[in-house]
Specification:
single chain; alpha+beta; Archaeosine Trna-guanine Transglycosylase, Chain: A, domain 4; 2 domains; five-stranded antiparallel β-sheet; five-stranded mixed β-sheet; 5 helices
């Protein structure tokens, strides 16, 4: 009963996230383009919504005003988070769009992926830019990692 009441309370307090300004949208989508080589135009069919520390993709509806009065817990696909002063892609967003990445993609063997998932951090050398990377194995995107010279850190769920 308490769990049901808590869910109801959260739902009643939930508000529709704000639509980002053009400048904020440009900054977030430029991060994806510069970091991963995914063209900004890829995200043209989507609104970019924001909460305090998160950005969400939401398919552009024909009438946004009608939806904005709804009380929601989440809206769309959690796309990017603000972590301190940096932007971090979510693993879910990379699983959806990471196949389009042309930069900063780590291709792991099944054994390397299994080791990374178990140990959360492995030794790894690659000609990559330091920062967040797309982790892929056998053509499937698994999610987000962090590459620093000589080290790969898992952010996989």
């Amino acid at each position: 009963m308490a769990k049901k009441a808590r869910r109801k309370r959260i739902h009643q307090q939930a508000v529709w996230p704000r639509t980002t300004s053009l400048e904020e949208r440009e900054a977030v989508l430029s991060f994806w383009e510069e970091r991963f080589g995914i063209p900004k135009e890829t995200f043209d069919p989507y609104l970019l919504l924001a909460t305090a520390k998160n950005y969400w993709l939401f398919v552009k509806p024909p009438d946004l005003k009608a939806l904005q009065g709804l009380r929601v817990q989440t809206t769309g696909l959690l796309f990017t988070r603000k972590v301190s002063r940096w932007l971090k892609p979510t693993s879910t967003a990379l699983q959806r769009f990471g196949h389009l990445a042309t930069k900063n993609v780590v291709q792991l063997s099944p054994a390397e992926l299994d080791r990374l998932r178990r140990e959360r951090k492995i030794s790894y050398e690659a000609p990559l830019e330091e920062g967040y990377v797309v982790i892929s194995c056998e053509g499937k995107v698994w999610g987000c990692g962090l590459y620093t010279p000589g080290k790969l850190i898992s952010y996989l769920p």
